[in-house]
From TrEMBL, chain A:
Organism: Roseomonas alba
InterPro entries, A to Z: Hydantoinase_B (IPR003692), Oxoprolinase-like (IPR045079)
Source species, domain of life: Bacteria
Record protein name field: Hydantoinase B/oxoprolinase family protein
PANTHER family: 5-OXOPROLINASE RELATED (PTHR11365), HYPOTHETICAL 5-OXOPROLINASE (EUROFUNG)-RELATED (PTHR11365:SF23)
Automatic annotation (TrEMBL), chain B:
Hydantoinase A/oxoprolinase domain location: 207-492
Entry-linked InterPro entries: ATPase_NBD, Hydant_A_N, Hydantoinase_A, Oxoprolinase-like
Domain Hydantoinase/oxoprolinase N-terminal: residue ranges: 8-186
Name of the featured protein: Hydantoinase/oxoprolinase family protein
Transmembrane stretches, start-end: none
């Protein structure tokens, strides 16, 4: 077995990144659904010959992608030119966690020897199911959430299973988009397969294998060392709550415990989490997810590291309870698992905050998605709009304003109005939604639509309304989101909201929590936030103690306000407290 | 009256201003190098022009035109030094810049990323009511009072420029035009930009950013051009001043003053045009250029002599979707620093030692190993550069590279080779992206390395890419000047039509093209292009319905839409590997590309003789399989058809070429050095 020297390792890492960039460029340029080409809800990864993800995307939600395929089609029986596909959540133990996400996977060979796998992953806008868009807050059963493709072999010896594709497209309300997206994803995976084979050819399969092994080992070692630096020996606990499942149930509490043993073994336990929900907020969490998510957090600031399957290896055991919100029993609905996923990611930071006395990011809001469907000009339309929220403030910087999630972009107003029967009346920062703090939480946004279709049905998905994102280290909680139609509030997690031409609906999204006491924020920064429409004059005085008159700071009054500081606590949700749930 | 045959090309770099003077009739050229004057670059500019004229013994009145590539706009944007600027936008969209595309970059860490500060703070964004619909109809009249109030408030806040971008202005610019008229009344002394005058295409964030950046660089560019013109005038040069645009063409100073953001890639574009020109002279039409400077490398692919344009360009963190030469820039150059992380990872760049302190071997205080130091350790560079004016410190280079080697537990030469391998690999990745995005196999191309550090990497990059031909331009270090001398006047005129190909109204499309051609004719007149020198080309930007990206397809000679459709499908297949016969095709935008030919100066052949007579010494090159003695060859002593084999080091004033073992070198009659190997 040839070993890979440090220089070649860096070269192989660079070549793998370049292969991903090529695949992503091809996908973006040729895909048809706006969800892929404008919002860019797609990812790629390269795996070693045994199926371990060696070079992933910087996304903390991946589980074991190859395993579910290998169970059905043993790896050693795979051949050059094979192409595999699935979206089966329960059939992949949560490697895919809602059915809209399609995974295409191809083994790559060099001189007849398997050298790795390549993945293309993308969210398809409609795959059948209860409502257009396939994801609905109304779902009560996973079978209402679109067609399920178990791990399948789509191509063998250059022969495509066209009937499987036709069946899939036949189940979509927008078959042309589905067809275009499928072709784009397949072409991207084929390109990646070619590149991985070339890399193997250039350095030799053994050197490539060793390079992948080193990348995995390196990530595991770094994540393990960083976790040991963060968490003391013993058990660290944190719990947080999501508001509702949209069916009148809730709140649901996630209870996390991370234990470091005296011999530095890490155990993640979420068994005390509440029972699964009747509505579709269940997160079928692959056991690799806590390691991936903590891995992404601790890899901040390391150059040359990649998030891969080495991160979950740093957690020695993961305990979940079947029948709970994080390990639901089939066929519990899963479509809105993003709500729970986003709360889970913040709760993992909560563990860090507890262990490190507040040196951790504050909580963020869960991203917001709306779906507007109906008929316009005799044609069926589906507008699925992912809307940005505020992320948590950090010990070194303000939280990010108006971001949805890694690498995902918004729909420009001009694009929307050219494409869908809507008019965007306003799109701006949701003032005062960022939690007050030395570092301000990111602000959410306001998006106000006028319906131009004769009739349409609206689904909204907004969490963190009753339980807004917590602030930390003296920072205050972020603001809540909400939705209204013609000024009347509607349930933040709901479907079946009927609209007619001329109706105006408004979505406000929540912000992130603040970090550090707001009185420590420089008054000039508060003034700039007021001038920029991020903070109101009232909130500047109330939360920050900064008095602004005629566009200028009243220094004397500000100083007087800031002289007395009420007691604060580690966390803040409506009031300072030691724990949020 | 003297004959006006002299062309002057001025390229301003960080350290030196290079001026090339060429007699268009004879091809004879003179060059001058003067120190750059960053505080007011026009000083170094005119000093260089004066010096070049003196050296050539020619009169200022003989100058026919002055060509200039400028990085003034680029540097201001990259360094955040643009003028205080306000934006007036549609009511309800005040945070259009702050929100952007919610674009947290794909390769950045969600928890670590900090949003870059916008060129206009939100407090200087003003809203005005008034609404144009997506189809261009007016839904609500423009609130002119709001525009007037915004202008006054912005002025009171001390801005130097105001940009206007209203929703759907690309479909109907009436509100933007009216707002500009109001600004002309209210704030005649401030720079003003309407988004449609910079970029009349869909997507409000990108268009707002283009308008804002244009307005924000306008005061400085305008002042800069005025100073250049005044100094030229004072020096007795009465010729027109033409500036290089990002699209690889030049435009008159007046046009650049209106749309200075068009110069954002001025310098790199000039290099690419120069590479195309020297390749054309050598009969090479398919090339990949790699311009390696101190901190970055610009990579561009030219197929069949055609420089591709992109509308997806960026400057720093900002989208700037103006037509730009389609190139990729990566942070790898001669000054890129090699570091070993605490985890044992070796990285090269993007941090750079730049020109100051520069690589360790420059002896100006740099201590970290750079790409240049690695070359020196391996014997790729002679000890003296710039004709002996610069001496490299081999011992300092070894100390710096040794530190890297120690951290990696490798012998020093392996560490040096590793540094180069990583830098080369970064460039190869970028070349592949450029190639695949345009549907080409790099092996079908000639690699053209230039820039001060380019020719050291040519053979290594070619080998990694499977390329068998490398062309080193006559003056690889000052190719921008060549590009300026070779450039034509260029402009694009486009309009969004958004029409399905099936059942498209050919009459309407023809009428749109005719209207665009009228705009082009007006532009030709403004730039005083003679009838015989004018050319235009029709292009359709097309896609499958519901795709987000278009392909540029040349309009068929007879306007046959069936041919157009077939051409599109073929291009999609070639580029992406598949087409979709059942899916409808859309024509999104029509574009007329206008070019005004400028006379190309004659070239002068190399004057030297056989390779044996050009050898000035020998040097040890350290290869992976051992050390070899390589001749040092003085390039100016090589004549046409002189040949030699690698390994060899070819020196000249502005660059050093490494001819690797296994490569054959031949001096082309055009002055280019051609390197070949068997596949």
């Amino acid at each position: 077995m040839s070993s890979c020297d440090p220089v070649t390792l860096e070269i192989i890492r660079g070549a793998a990144r370049a292969a991903q960039a090529e695949m992503e460029a091809l996908l973006e340029r040729t895909a048809m659904s706006a969800f892929i080409r404008e919002k860019k809800d797609f990812y790629t990864a390269l795996f070693d010959a045994d199926g371990a993800m060696a070079v992933g995307s910087d996304l903390p939600i991946f589980g074991d992608i190859v395993g579910p395929v290998a169970e059905r089609f043993p790896i050693e029986t795979m051949r050059e030119g094979d192409l595999y596909w699935y979206n089966d959540c329960y059939g992949s133990r949560g490697a895919v966690s809602h059915s809209n996400d399609q995974v295409f996977l191809a083994p790559a060979f060099h001189d007849g020897k398997r050298v790795g796998f390549v993945m293309g992953w993308a969210h398809f806008s409609d795959i059948g199911g209860l409502r257009p868009g396939s994801i609905s807050p109304d779902a009560t059963d996973h079978f209402q959430e679109g067609i399920i493709i178990p791990p399948s072999r789509l191509m063998r010896d250059g022969e495509m299973n066209e009937d499987l594709l036709r069946t899939f497209w036949r189940n979509s309300r927008f078959p042309t988009q589905s067809q275009g997206d499928t072709r784009a994803l397949m072409a991207a995976v084929r390109l990646g397969e070619k590149r991985l084979s070339e890399i193997a050819g250039r350095f030799g399969p053994d050197v490539l294998a060793d390079a992948f092994r080193q990348l995995l080992d390196r990530t595991e070692a770094i994540v393990r060392a960083k976790l040991a630096a963060i968490f003391p020996v013993g058990t660290t606990r944190f719990a947080d709550t999501i508001d509702t499942d949209g069916h009148g149930n809730g709140p649901f509490t996630l209870r996390l415990a991370l234990t470091r043993s005296a011999d530095d073994r890490f155990t993640f336990d979420a068994t005390e989490t509440d029972d699964q929900a009747p509505g579709p907020v269940n997160l079928l969490m692959h056991p690799d997810v806590p390691g991936m998510a903590l891995g992404l957090y601790v890899l901040q600031g390391t150059t040359g590291q990649v998030l891969n399957a080495g991160a979950p290896r740093a957690i020695d055991a993961v305990h979940l309870r079947e029948g709970s919100l994080l390990a639901p029993r089939a066929p519990a609905p899963l479509g809105l698992r993003g709500v729970t996923m986003m709360r889970l990611l913040a709760a993992l930071h909560g563990l860090v905050a507890v262990a490190q006395g507040g040196q951790a990011p504050a909580a963020h809001s869960a991203y917001v998605v709306i779906a507007l469907r109906g008929m316009a000009g005799g044609k069926r339309f589906l507008l699925s709009d992912g809307i940005g929220v505020g992320y948590g403030a950090r010990p070194f910087a303000d939280g990010t304003d108006a971001v949805y999630f890694v690498a995902q972009e918004n729909y420009p107003a001009e694009f929307m109005e050219l494409t869908y029967p809507v008019r965007l009346r306003a799109y701006g920062i949701n003032c005062d939604s960022g939690g007050a703090g030395r570092w301000r939480g990111g602000c959410g946004v306001v998006r106000e639509f006028e319906v131009l279709a004769d009739t349409a049905m609206l689904a909204v998905r907004i969490d963190s309304v009753v339980n807004p994102p917590w602030g930390v280290s003296g920072g205050m909680n972020g603001g809540s989101g909400g939705a209204t139609i013609g000024g009347r509030p509607i349930a933040p997690l709901s479907d079946g909201n009927m609209l007619k031409k001329g109706d105006v609906f408004r979505i406000e999204t929540g912000g992130g929590g603040g970090w550090g006491h707001p009185f420590d924020r420089p008054a000039s920064d508060v003034l700039a936030d007021v001038a920029g429409g991020f903070v109101s004059i009232e909130a500047a005085a109330r939360d920050y103690g900064v008095v602004i008159r005629d566009g200028a700071i009243d220094a004397a009054e500000t100083e007087a306000n800031r002289a007395t500081r009420p007691a604060s606590g580690l966390f803040h949700r409506r009031e300072y407290r030691d724990a949020v749930a | 009256m003297p004959s006006r045959d002299l062309l002057v090309a001025v390229d301003i770099g960080g350290t030196f201003t290079d001026v090339t003077l060429q007699d268009a009739a004879t091809g004879r050229a003179w060059t001058a190098k003067t120190p750059s004057t960053p505080r007011d670059p026009s000083e170094g500019f005119i000093a260089g022009v004066t010096q070049a004229l003196a050296e050539a013994g020619r009169d200022a009145a003989e100058v026919a035109r002055v060509l200039h590539g400028t990085t003034v706009a680029t540097n201001m944007i990259l360094e955040g030094r643009t003028a205080p600027t306000a934006l007036i936008t549609t009511r309800g969209f005040r945070h259009v810049l702050e929100i952007g595309r919610a674009d947290l970059p794909r390769r950045d860490n969600l928890w670590a990323w900090v949003k870059p500060k916008r060129p206009v703070p939100p407090g200087l964004v003003f809203e005005a009511a008034g609404r144009i619909a997506a189809d261009g109809s007016e839904l609500e009249a423009l609130d002119e009072t709001a525009v007037r109030d915004a202008a006054r408030a912005a002025k009171a806040a001390g801005v130097a420029a105001i940009a206007v971008c209203f929703l759907h202005a690309f479909a109907n610019p009436a509100h933007e035009r009216r707002a500009l008229a109001i600004l002309a009344e209210e704030v005649p002394d401030l720079a003003r930009t309407a988004s449609v005058d910079v970029l009349p295409v869909v997507r409000e964030y990108e268009r707002s950013m283009a308008a804002v950046l244009n307005a924000a660089v306008m005061p400085a560019i305008s002042g800069y051009i005025a100073r250049l013109e005044a100094r030229l005038d004072a020096a007795g040069v009465a010729a027109p001043l033409l500036l290089m645009k990002s699209n690889g063409g030049v435009a008159g100073a007046a046009a650049i003053r209106r749309a200075p953001a068009q110069t954002a890639l001025s310098g790199p574009a000039a290099g690419v045009v120069g590479a195309r020109a020297v390749c054309a002279a050598a009969g090479v039409a398919d090339l990949i250029t790699v311009d390696i400077g101190g901190t970055s490398a610009d990579i561009c692919l030219i197929a069949q002599g055609e420089i591709g344009l992109t509308q997806h360009g960026r400057v720093g963190p900002w989208p700037l979707p103006l037509p730009m030469v389609d190139m990729v820039t990566i942070g790898a150059g001669g000054g890129s620093i090699a570091r070993v992380g605490t985890d044992g990872t070796l990285t090269v760049g993007p941090q750079s030692a730049g020109a100051d302190p520069g690589p360790a071997c420059y002896g100006r205080g740099g201590t970290e190993a750079t790409v240049t130091d690695a070359h020196l350790v391996l014997g790729h560079l002679p000890d003296r550069l710039l004709g002996g004016r610069m001496v490299l410190d081999r011992a300092k280079a070894r100390i710096a590279v040794q530190a890297v080697a120690d951290a990696l537990l490798l012998p020093i030469e392996d560490a040096a080779r590793g540094i180069l391998a990583i830098a080369d690999n970064n460039m190869v990745g970028a070349i592949r992206v450029v190639s695949v995005e345009r549907g080409h196999d790099p092996r079908d191309f000639t690699l053209v390395p230039f820039g001060g550090a380019g020719p050291l990497h040519g053979c290594a990059l070619a080998e990694l890419l499977g390329i068998t031909r490398v062309l080193v331009p006559p003056s690889p270090g000052v190719l921008c000047a060549q590009g300026l001398l070779a450039a034509d006047l260029k402009a694009e005129f486009s309009r969004t039509v958004a029409e399905a190909l099936d059942g498209a109204d050919r009459t309407r499309l023809e009428a749109t093209f005719a209207a665009l051609e009228t705009e082009a004719a007006d532009w030709f007149a403004q730039e005083a292009v003679a009838q015989a020198d004018r050319s235009t080309r029709r292009v359709a930007l097309m896609r499958y319905e519901e795709q987000g990206h278009e392909l540029a397809i040349p309009w068929p000679a007879d306007g046959d839409l069936a041919v157009l459709g077939a051409d599109f499908a073929a291009a999609h297949r070639a580029l992406y590997g598949f087409d979709l016969p059942d899916v409808a095709v859309e024509i999104v935008t029509l574009r007329v590309e206008a070019a005004g030919a400028l006379p190309t100066p004659a070239s002068s052949p190399p004057l030297g003789g056989a390779a044996e007579g050009a050898i000035t010494g020998h040097q040890t090159i350290r290869l992976r399989d051992g050390a070899v003695e390589a001749p040092i060859i003085d390039r100016v002593r090589l004549g046409p058809e002189a040949t030699f084999a690698g390994p060899a080091i070819v020196t000249q004033l502005d660059a050093t070429t490494l001819v690797a073992p296994g490569w054959q070198a031949r001096m082309d009659a055009s002055g280019a050095l051609l390197l070949t190997r068997s596949a």
